[in-house]
Amino acid sequence: MSMSAPIWSGYWAVTKPRIVALIVFTAIIGMLLAIRPGEPWPWLRLAMASIGIWLGAASASAINHLLDQRIDKLMARTSERPLATGALRPGQVLGFAIVLGAASMAILLWWVNAICAVLTFASLIGYAIIYTGFLKRATPQNIVIGGLAGAAPPLLGWAAVTGMQQAHDWEYALLLVLIIYVWTPPHFWALAIFRREDYSRALVPMLPVTHGVTYTRWQILLYTVLLVVVTVLPWAAHMSGVFYLGGALVLGGVFLWYAWRLLDPPDEFFAMRTFKYSIVYLMALFAFLLVDHWLQPLFQSVPALEFVSQA
Known about the structure:
There is one protein chain. The chain is mainly alpha-helical. The protein is 79% helix and 0% strand. Residues 304-309 have low confidence and may be disordered.
């Protein structure tokens, strides 16, 4: 970030807007999946929950910038961040994070419900403090152990709509969490392979640094296989139908191809292409879930389609 850039752009940058957009997207999918077809949409709650979750995620991202400012200066990918360049001071970022976090909790408690607020706060602490402050520097399994916080957004969205009053609310929401949780290692390790010199220079024990690139590639393949299996569970649990199942299998097949090809990649940039596909994969997978959810009344209104959907 240039020192001459307006200060608001620095504050915007520490919220990690692209990452937070994906978080809010999966939270909104959780909200919409929690609404049964035919039920009225709680528009105000949906809007306020989206804003509250966005603010909570942005607060966690700002704290991440604050705790990572030393290593950010050493890594090419992060060397232009506002704290690394001196465009913002630590006190400014800390105050900004506190304001965002307080606003998030106020909105969620007042306009949504307490369980959504508590889960959002737990996710904030899990990512900003437990993962960034401890796990990231403590173990090469940091992404696996700390991935739960990053996988929580669909649960937050589901909680915003239902308050988690029924047992199936937890079952269905946690299936969505499980998908993102298993998706996180192959997603992030692909980036870590490409940026392994950065992590090595910053003394961050990412898997490609501690165990080598070959081992990490095999781990990506194994987790991708597991991911394909996990993405079948919503269909097996009758949460979704064959439209979602078909989309999940096609998307998973392409992800498996990337993971298999990564074992002997055509060039050094293939790991980054795998990383970028993993983002498209997750967005498309959740879009299939959502479309399938709202197609269920159509399946039920046409006998032939109903038979297919239950097959």
